[in-house]
Amino acid sequence: MKPTAIIYGSSLGNTRYVAEKLHQYIPDANLYPAEEVTPEIINNHTNLILGASTWGVGLLQDEFENFVALLLQCDIKDKTIALFGLGDQHNYPDTFCDGMGKLFKMLENRGVKFVGEWAADEYDFSTSKALQNGKLVGLALDEDNEPDLTDYRLKKWSKQIIPAL
């Protein structure tokens, strides 16, 4: 596996918790909170696994907004990127994991290779910016309503993306 970074933004701790769990399944990756990431960290990793939660009506978490600004200033062409997002499909069914979808849109024309799309059929939401061509652009997790499925989904998703990293 080429140098891989798991980078997450977390205000209340849910995304940090999920990123730490994911790190258990991908122990060779380096784990960074978004606010500690520097251009050197981005440049020194071939693969980026980015974890963002969705706040309110489809906003990215604050530290992750700042991280994305930094990321867009870096040369990320030819990097492999996997996305995971946290959302609440019951209270925000019309913006479920929109943060992950916004991130995808910001990066899709930057010459990166995305891996880790995920089936949407096991969720109950009405719309999401993370839904592209019938699939989610990354792993969607709902710690508010389905925390019991997080480990299962992380394990399955990590097995799916590791060969591409």
Order of helices and strands: EHEHEEHEHEEEEEH
Structural shape: globular
Q: What is the CATH topology?
A: Rossmann fold
How many domains? The number is 1
Number of strands: 10
Helix content range of the residues, please?
25-40%
- Which whole number gives the mean pLDDT? 94
Residue fraction in strands: 15-25%
Rg measurement, Å? 14 Å
As residue ranges, the low-confidence spans are none
CATH homologous superfamily label = Flavodoxin domain
Number of helices: 5
- Tell me what the CATH architecture is: 3-Layer(aba) Sandwich
The CATH class = Alpha Beta
Note the quaternary state here.
single chain
Main β-sheet: number of strands, strand sense, barrel status? 7 strands, mixed
Describe this entry's structure for a reader:
The structure is a single chain. The protein has 165 residues and is of the alpha/beta class. The chain has one domain: Flavodoxin domain (Rossmann fold). It is built from five helices and ten strands. The protein has helices spanning 14-25, 39-43, 62-73, 98-107, 150-161, and strands at residues 4-8, 30-33, 47-55, 59-60, 80-86, 113-115, 118-119, 131-132, 135-136, 139-141. The strands form two sheets. Strands 1, 2, 3, 4, 5, 6 and 10 form a seven-stranded mixed sheet that branches. Strands 7-9-8 form a three-stranded antiparallel sheet, with no helix packed on it. α1 (14-25) packs across α5. It is globular. The termini are close together.
